Amino acid sequence: MINPLAKTSKVSSVTIQHQAKSTSNPWEVKEDDFPIDAPTSEKLKFLLNYAILAPSGHNTQPWLFKIIDNTIELYADRTRTLPIVDPNNRELIMSCGAALFNLRLAIRHFGYRDIVEIFPKPETSDLLARISIGSKRIIKQEESYLFRAIPRRATNRLPFIDRQLPASLITELESATESEDTWREITTKIISKSDRSKAIELIDHGDCQQMADPLFRQELSKWVHAHNNSSHDGIPAHAQGINEKLDVFAPIISLAIRSFDLGKSQSAKDCQLAKNAPVLMLIGSKSDRPRDWLETGEALEHLLLKARIDDVWASFFNQPIEIPELRSRLQAMFPKNGYPQILLRLGYAKESKPTQRRTVDEVISC
Question: pLDDT band for position 21 (50/70/90)?
């Protein structure tokens, strides 16, 4: 396991006049600030503003980037692991896959080919991908729609309104996990009404089992922060479906999570959200290796962005997948869907604020 923070490399130097604009709030990145006349290394640095808007478990943002000459290397940041809920770093790598998709999409939107090597050095497990800017290409309209949805995407844990998704849109969202890349073998399954009660039962068991575990509660509580916390990560009140005015009580909420088994109340809330969701979807993969996890993250982000184009929100019910016994039961329910990787709901809701993001400077390794 290689920690890129400890490595040294020849990082391209740039002159002050060519430096890309940076923002203290990555959600406010402006497309017009793309440094079109700057060196490639500065273009890449600017494009990272979009990569870091990807979702991640507990908003840990477990990615590191290294710009070497005209290439970006994407690393898994193992200092941000969740050893209780994600002991194999499956969700960590999926989060990095979502960031990778955003980066590739941004490169394409600005009119370049994206050249990507997945796991270029098998002996370096933390190095997940190497990305370069290729030759100029024609910008596809669909990619531009997806690109402009990046700053509009956020996990929305509010109750969805009573409005069904059009059948044609559901079909489009199912196809979002497909790719022109022949190596991606990700599947989607819309959970039918007849199967929904069984899936909700697993969500119930997942919440109760996790919240009954003091180690799980301690890990979760460490990532519950106020929205204006200096670390620019973690879960504020509004990201938990709680009124954002209560964000000032984040330390008290964290203490309550750590001290009390809130499984029954959490289960009741999640089961109601799942029951009322217009769409409950399961994303799976043919096999269950790090490469599959990275591909799942890319596919997931594609789906989430396509949903936001049509004002559809999403949030996750991964409890049954994070507990091996429940994951096996979920897999047995849908054997043709491969290994369960993501369980999510889709629907319409009131606007939800995004969670904080570390700046590009904070996630670049020298």
Answer: low
SS (HEC) of 17-54 = HHCCCCCCCHHHCCHHHCCCCCCHHHHHHHHHHHHCCC
Q: What is the mean pLDDT of residues 138-165?
A: 96
Same domain, 23 and 149: yes
pLDDT digits (tens, 9 = 90+) for 289-332: 999 999 999 999 999 999 999 999 999 999 999 999 999 999 99
Closest to 317 in 3D by CA, of 215, 153, 206: 206
State whether residue 69 is helix, strand or coil: coil
Which domain, by its residues, includes 294?
167-198+272-347
Per the CB < 8 A criterion, the answer to whether 91 and 296 are in contact is: no
Residues 100 and 36 in one domain: yes
Q: How many domains does the chain have?
A: 2
Tell me, yes or no, whether 181 and 321 share the same domain. Answer: yes
Nearest-10 crossing angle of helices 141-149, 290-309: 90
> By the 8 A CB rule, do 113 and 137 touch?
yes
52-241-78 Cα angle (round to 5):
35
Location of structure tokens 């941004």: 106
Q: Which residues contact 116 (CB under 8 A, 6 or more apart)?
A: 100, 104, 129, 130, 131, 132
